[in-house]
């Protein structure tokens, strides 16, 4: 209704195929043709205007996981993620820092290489590494960026099939990823959401439950910044769909264990 315009969009998901994080700036690889996350980050830095400190897009009090009320836009084509109802009445400033969080079981070599010398994009990846024997063989903890970008690449590699569990992912987020993200204070967050570390994926060989990805999404949303999620890998279609659904519920503020029905409902969903 013209007199009651919708609230600004703060979060979104792009259900894109093929995935993109292995694609280099001039080379496709690993089922990836174009690096969707890198293109999105470049577009954010070129075009996105974030509300200024005098006009925050979020409530004054920090929302908890049980009170998140974000709006979801789902599309197969990336769209502008934050558009104020009346742009002229909301002071804005150009986005200066983007964080790309990649939780695909494979390291996003393409995304890392594209921004390896830059500080305006923080690239953080959790992945199987197996001493460099797991595809694509990159992503050592010693790879931290170079030149102006030194310190703005963060790799959390794991060794061994079956070794990545819910506890591993949650600990990595709580003690490494979120503290770094809070200090970096990005204007915009892009999640390369690969779900091949989920339990039952034929390539990942890991044991992360679908609902855990919803909790990780909530943790990222506590940064109180616009979040864009892009699909990456995932080769168990049912598990990928379930993990995606948990993330979508988190993005729209449904919660992972806080909604009516709570934990039992989520467990029943995973059994279906």
Please describe what this structure looks like.
The radius of gyration is 18 Å and the shape is globular. A seven-stranded parallel β-sheet has the order 3-1-9-8-5-6-7, with helices on both faces. Helix 4 links the parallel strand 8 (about 190-195) and strand 9. The termini are far apart. It is built from six helices and nine strands, in the order βαββββαββαβαβαα. Helix 3 packs parallel to helix 4 (about 210-220) and helix 4 (about 210-220) runs parallel beside helix 5. By secondary structure, it is of the alpha/beta class. The longest helix is centred in the middle third of the chain and has 19 residues, at about 165-185.
Could you provide a short overview of the structure?
This protein is α/β, with parallel strands linked by helices. The protein has 6 helices and 9 strands.
List the SSEs and their pairings.
Layout: E1 11-14, H1 36-47, E2 49-51, E3 72-75, E4 92-94, E5 98-102, H2 109-114, E6 121-128, E7 153-158, H3 166-184, E8 188-193, H4 210-221, E9 227-231, H5 237-251, H6 262-271
Parallel strand pairs: 1-3, 1-9, 5-6, 5-8, 6-7, 8-9
Antiparallel strand pairs: 2-4
Helix pairs in contact: 3-4, 4-5
């Amino acid at each position: 209704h013209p007199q009651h315009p919708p609230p600004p969009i703060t979060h979104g998901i792009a259900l894109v195929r093929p995935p993109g994080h292995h694609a280099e700036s001039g080379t496709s690889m690993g089922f990836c043709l174009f690096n969707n996350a890198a293109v999105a980050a470049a577009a954010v830095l070129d075009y996105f205007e974030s509300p200024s400190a005098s006009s925050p897009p979020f409530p004054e009090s920090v929302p908890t996981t049980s009170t998140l009320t974000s709006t979801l836009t789902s599309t197969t084509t990336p769209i502008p993620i934050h558009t104020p109802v009346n742009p002229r009445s909301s002071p804005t400033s150009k986005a200066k820092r983007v964080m790309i969080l990649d939780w695909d079981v494979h390291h996003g070599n393409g995304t890392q290489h594209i921004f390896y010398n830059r500080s305006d994009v923080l690239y953080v990846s959790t992945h199987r590494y197996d001493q460099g024997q797991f595809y694509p063989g990159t992503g050592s903890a010693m790879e931290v960026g170079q030149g102006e970008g030194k310190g703005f690449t963060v790799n959390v590699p794991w060794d061994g099939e079956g070794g990545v569990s819910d506890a591993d992912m949650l600990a990595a987020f709580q003690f490494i990823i979120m503290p770094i993200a809070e200090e970096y204070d990005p204007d915009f967050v892009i999640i390369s959401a690969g779900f091949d570390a989920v339990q039952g994926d034929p390539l990942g060989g890991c044991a992360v439950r679908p609902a855990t990805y919803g909790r990780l999404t909530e943790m990222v949303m506590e940064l109180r910044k616009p979040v864009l999620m892009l699909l990456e890998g995932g080769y168990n279609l049912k598990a990928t769909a379930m993990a995606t659904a948990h993330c979508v519920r988190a993005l729209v503020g449904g919660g992972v264990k806080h909604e009516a029905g709570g934990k039992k409902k989520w467990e029943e969903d995973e059994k279906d």
